Amino acid sequence: MKSLLSKDQVSMRDVFGETLLKLSLESDKVYAIDGDLANSTKIDAVAKGNPSRFLQMGIAEQNMMSVAAGLAATGLQPWAATFAAFLSKRAIDQIQVQIAQPKLDVKMIGAYSGLLTGVTGKTHQSLEDIAIFRSLANMVVLAPADSIEVEKMMEFAHKYEGPLYMRLARDPYPIIFNEDYHFEFGKAVHLKEGTDITIISTGTQTSRSLAAAEQLEADGISAAVIHLPTIKPLDKEAIVKAAENTGVIVTAEEHSIYGGLGSAVAEVLVEEKPVPMLRVGVKDLNSESAKNDDLLEKYEISSGHIVKRVKEALTKKNSLI
Fold first, then answer.
1. For residue 252, which of 174, 173, 308 has the smallest C-alpha distance?
2. Crossing angle, helix 12-26 and helix 147-159, to 10 degrees?
3. Which residues make Cβ contacts (< 8 Å) with residue 83, sequence separation at least 6?
4. Which are the contacts of 43, defined by CB distance < 8 A and separation ≥ 6?
5. CA torsion angle for 313, 317, 318, 321 (degrees, to 10)?
6. Closest by alpha carbon to 153, among 201, 199, 191, 187?
7. What is the largest CA-CA distance in the chain?
8. Residue 233, preceding bond cis, omega within 30 degrees?
9. Alpha-carbon distance 4 to 308, whole Å?
């Protein structure tokens, strides 16, 4: 099996900053709003390249989102960026009441999402942001798999009128898509065909899912891999078709197993096409801060753990035959 993962790794946040600068130079309605983390989220690219479109709000996320709502109400398009943990939990009331309910055109960027936030500390990790944002009416939720998809998603987000949340990773990830990749809103991306089982992943777990599929192939197991860059709205048709094709599903996400991708997929399956399914995600645990490899193993979301869950799911499938 030819690997779908490039050896080249590029940071999502670097591409985010560069793309937002480009958008701010092309459109007179784009503004960058920062919660005093510009050098980490890389939104400082706008501060340096187009300073008149950069607004520093300080460490005051609730006020930052209220300002974003005010700008959007006047016809501007604010892009507010801070760590996912702070955006999803400190400012959720302002986001729901002032942005989601009136369906204002605010783009919310949750940087440093998931477990792998460097050694910034467990307060900077975000394992609940997908669950929180997808519970809000009118909210779009996106999770790119690589830096190329970040750029394509941002081009879509600029044209889309309404509240949108996109989660980004801190560290560089392998390139999966080509430059001519077209992000299709609300649609799954079929990365690998397979006949035994389907792995459905999102965000940073997609590269680990592809790595897991390579390991499974060596063990004689044919695993399809579907990437869901749009978590809300969800591509229900692709999920049902995957269940019909392989009869068993494993989901993979760098997020809590409660309320995230796995929960969303399970909701579809139980209503449309019940099949055996297992989830790979952080269980009902409070996380700790450590090096990436240690966290992936401790919280059982590494490619090796995806392989393990796939084999467990196949056992469940075979027990029904």
1. 308
2. 30
3. 37, 40, 41, 110, 111, 112, 117, 124, 126
4. 16, 17, 20, 32, 34, 54, 79, 81, 109
5. 170
6. 187
7. 64
8. yes
9. 21
CB 310 within 8 A of CB 250: yes
pTM: 0.96
Concatenate the DSSP letters of all residues of 255-277 into one string.
Answer: EESSSSHHHHHHHHHHHH----E
311 burial via Cβ count (<10 Å: 0-12, 13-18, 19+): middle
One digit per residue, the tens of pLDDT, for the chain of length 321 reads 556 677 789 999 999 999 999 999 999 999 999 999 999 999 999 999 999 999 999 999 999 999 999 999 999 999 999 999 999 999 999 999 999 999 999 999 999 999 999 888 889 999 999 999 999 999 999 999 999 999 999 999 999 999 999 999 999 999 999 999 999 999 999 999 999 999 999 999 999 999 999 999 999 999 999 999 999 999 999 999 999 999 999 999 999 999 999 999 999 999 999 999 999 999 999 999 999 999 999 999 999 999 999 999 999 998 887
Which amino acid does the sequence have at 175? Answer: I
**CA-to-CA distance for 297 and 225, rounded, in angstroms?**
21
> And the tokens for 216?
């499974």
DSSP-H helix ranges across the chain: 12-26, 38-41, 44-49, 61-73, 84-90, 92-94, 129-134, 147-159, 205-218, 236-246, 261-272, 292-298, 303-319
Neighbours of 27 (CB within 10 A): 13
User: Is 61 annotated in the active site?
Assistant: yes
18, 26, 61, 244: the active-site residue: 61
Please report how many Cα atoms fall inside a 13 Å half-sphere around the Cα of residue 302, on the Cβ side.
12
Residue 223's nearest CA partner among 111, 314, 88 is: 314
